Amino acid sequence: MNHIAPGARAGIYHYDEIDRQFVAERVEQFRKQVERRLSGELTEEEFKPVRLMNGLYLQLHAYMLRIAVPYGVMSATQLRKLAEIGRRYDRGYGHFTTRQNLQYNWIKLEDTPAILHELAEVDMHALQTSGNCVRNVTTDPFVGAARDEVVDGRVYAEILRQWTTMHPEFTYLPRKFKIAISGAESDRAAVRIHDVGLLARRNDKGEAGFSFYVGGGLGRSPFVGKLVREWVAEEDFVAYLEAILRVYNQYGRRDNIYKARIKILVHELGLEKFTQEVEEEFARLRGPKYRLDPEIVEGVRQHFAPPPFEEPPDHSEALERAKASDPAFANWLAVNVAEHKAPGYAIATISLKPAGGIPGDATCDQMDLVADLAERHSFGELRVTHVQNLVLAHVKKDELYDLWKQLDAAELGSANAGLIGDIIACPGLDYCALANARSIPLAQAISARFADPVRQRTIGELGIKISGCINACGHHHVGAIGILGVDKKGTEYYQITVGGDPTLTTEIGDILGPAVTETEAVDAIEAIVDVYLANRTGEGERFIDTLRRVGHAPFKERIYAAD
Amino acid sequence: MPLIENGRIGEDAWSFIPDGEPVPNDRPVIISFERWQAERDSFEGRNARLGVRLKSGTLAGAIAADLDRFSLVALEFPKFRDGRGFSTARELRERYGYTGEIRAVGHVIPDQYLFLVRTGFTSVEAPEGTNPDSWANALKEITIAFQPSLDDTAPLSLLRRKLKVG
Ligand code: HEM
Ligand code: SF4
Question: What global pTM score does this model have?
Fold first, then answer.
């Protein structure tokens, strides 16, 4: 293997010549495929999966191009290129998605080969961001930095990136296939709502292994992933996944697109029978061919070596002074900054949810700024989170105030990570051909209503998630408050669910009552919050815990009392 | 229909005999799996080569016990998006040790050819009027593979390397 030394940057996988040549070949292949489509050799039906495999979707008004950000980690240089592309080929912005990718919503088909070519210059592409293949593997946005981390998920996500790239057997699966890995004590990757969710852990000898949850997913029929195997040793990591995919490819339903995800297979076969099929396949696959050699794990791990941390004292005087003098900063610090494993450093979340803004959107100027800040304060590296924010993972505590001032000046300083303003919303009817209702304007209205940062912090941890239709791209099922767009005789309505939970204690939310209009929805959310605040015990009880304790009744009464 | 083998249009020695039509004894023929199940005794003592054609819902295990009777297994792709055949071929090779010809029939596109070869197929029945260049090119345009498959037995420790096919 041909590693390039990571140098002074943080944990970024560096392409070697083989990776580069591969991407170049794929760009050229796609150019030819477009030609063959234009000449009529490929029918539209035949071209569609090929196009999707290259991240190109046809939406309501234009093409959408989804750029892969492997496990959500990228370099400042890459982000700058994304900004440049957004300026030249889109309308000056990009949209960060719940899959930790970036999406352009206004792309012309004829520009795509040129865009892919430009992406390749910075070792990026749009491969396998759509289509019925194994999609970009996601992981904890605090990976490699979190104090509660046990195993570095990037290493295994990168191994999967390579292993699933143009996998000859699993590129025409019954349906798309999404994998998430978490290697920390708290699950920040929502592993149990994925087709395969992996919890990386260590045994008492300190060896890495994985718990496999299979068959989670949202959409029309939401399911929480089921534990198929408690411990898969590192060397069997790929073999076990290969076994799961082979069982799925053979037995997954292909007669009905709504029943084609692996969650339906697990549900219909039953956990026991499904597990047995996987175990049989695994027992045979387990030979040397699929054994994950510790040496290759080590080789990949070197790419993610810790950046050259200085050793500042863990307690920062500068930080304390700034905190005391600037309450807005103190608020941001309390809400958006998490503990780092290296003393004197911290993890900063950059909210892409300004009050009244479009969740996940960033202008190209903002992207350039974040790239600069990443270079200045975080070893040239940043992450995209599955709640559509950005993260600078390695910021010196001494520099946090300086960082925040620059973010705040660019409308990137909102103190709402994990709070009610940190809304996930899918593109909805503004962009999406499948939508029943708009998601974005509702998200904007809600975040404007709760704009006051002090009020938000008083309310505490409360995730609102909005999807414009039952496909659940906005994860509404696992929102503490979930909102689903429905169509009632041509009018947009919203159905409210409560009690969803995307963390390891995964819960699918319950419907609270009949769907409401857009204006009613904003009032209803406020009513829910009021009922919660009136019922919670002390400052500490989270919305979800109050709800579990008091049940739905008080909430229902308040919202539907007038009817 | 043109037969694609090793990236080129080749000679097809085989013919498929639809159910109900008499099976010639003097040349290689392919019969349906259903016919094989119903009339297997009638093929006892046959000298000319025999092939069997499986629908995409029929998995490798169904034919495993009889594989030594067939010089060819044809796997049907009702639609090119139905990728079960890729697993079936691989199971035939890796699980059941089948060494005869495996042929893709039905709806397959050149963009899948490399995957077919890598999962153990030896030939493809392409539609009339197909562009031979697209098939030839399909084996050449991507030269890198990131995972082991049938074309080599190198262990996974070589996560990535140059591809050798065709
Ligand atoms: C506007 C174009 C889009 C279309 C047409 C679309 C379509 C769909 C469909 C049909 C599904 C259901 C698939 C299934 O259950 O088998 C789905 C699921 C999903 N989409 Fe989208 N989507 C779009 C945009 C997005 C965006 C922008 C995001 C990220 C912000 C996203 C994230 C997801 C996620 C996370 C799921 C999985 C939910 C699950 O587990 O079932 N989608 N999408
Ligand atoms: S949830 Fe529905 S409306 Fe929203 S992006 Fe997905 S498919 Fe479109």
Answer: 0.91
